[in-house]
Amino acid sequence: MPVVDVHTHLLPPELPRWKERFGYGGFVHLEHLGPCRARMLRDDGQPFREVEENLWSPAARIAECDRAGVDVQVLSTVPVMFSYWAKPEDGAEVARFLNDHLASVVAGAPQRFLGLGTLPMQAPALAVRELERCVKTLGLSGVQIGSHVNDWNLSDPALFEVFAAASELGAAVFVHPWDMMGEARMQRYWLPWLVGMPAEVSLAICSVIFGGVLERLPALRIGFAHGGGAFPGTLGRIQHGFESRPDLVAVDSPVPPRAYLGRFWVDSLVHDPDMLRLIVKLFGEDRVMLGSDYPFPLGESEPGALIRSVPELAATHERLLGENALRWLGRPC
Ligand code: CO
Questions:
Q1: Which of 5, 252, 294, 331 pairs with 174 at a CA distance of 20 to 30 A?
Q2: Does the residue 236 lie in any domain?
C-alpha cells in the first residue's frame, strides 16, 4: 500500500502580476532570491512568507518524498492564493492558471502526484464550471476550498450547488483554513495560525453539519485539515449545545452532530499522539489520512512519523498512511 500525503501545497515557479492585469491589488506573487529561495509578496510589497524550491520544484519534492518514504503527494495550492475577494471572472482566471499548472505537475509524474484544484468560490456558478474542468479535463481528484468564502460560511445556500456538483462528479473536497477569524486581535504570537486556524476548521465542520450539507449529500466525500481543528476537542460542547438549545442549533437540520462522526475525513496533522488516538476513535480508523502540510513549518517535518509512533494503531497504519486517502480520492487501492 503506498504512503499518500493528502495535505501538501504547491505553487508555480512564477506567478503573474495580476494587479497589473486586473487593475486592483491584493494578489500574491513570487520574488526569487536565488535558484532555491523566493519570497511570497503581496502586491502592496508586504512580505507574506519566505519559501524554498520544494514549494515549486517537482524534482525537489520527489527527492524529499523518497527520503521520507512518501510515495504520493496530493498537491493543492497555498490557501493565500484562493483570492475569493477578487472579482468573479478574475478569480476564475486565477483558479484556471493555478489548476493548469498543478495538473501539469501531476501529468509529469502521475505515479508520485495527485491533484486538488482551486475554485472561484465567490461565484458558485463559475466554481461549478471550473470544478467540472478540474475533474473531466485536467484529471484532478477533487478540489481544495477555504473554511469560509468571504461572508459565507459553508452552510450558506449559495455554496450548495458547488457541494452538489462535487458529490455528483465524485470529486473529493478538502477544506483548508484561511482568512482567519479574529485576526485584528491576533497580531502577536502567530495566533492566527495557532488559534484562528483550528477555530476556522471547527466552524467549517459545524457549518456543513448544521447547515444540512452532509444530510442532503450523503455521497459527498469531504475532508478537513488539521485533524478537524478545534472540533474534536469541543465535540461534547457542540453536541450538548444541540441537545440543550435545538431552537438555536437545529434550525436547518434535525440530525445531531455525533451522528456524522464517520461521515467525513480529516488529516492526521495534530502533532500529538493522544490527539491522534482521539481523532481515530471519534472519526474512525478509515477516516483519518496522513497529511503533513508540506513544505511549511507548522507541518509534520517527517510525514507519517506521528502515525508510526503510536503502537496501538499499528494494525491500522496502512489505512492511515495511504488506503484511506486513496478511498477518499476515489482512486484504486
Ligand atoms: Co496547509
A1: 252
A2: yes
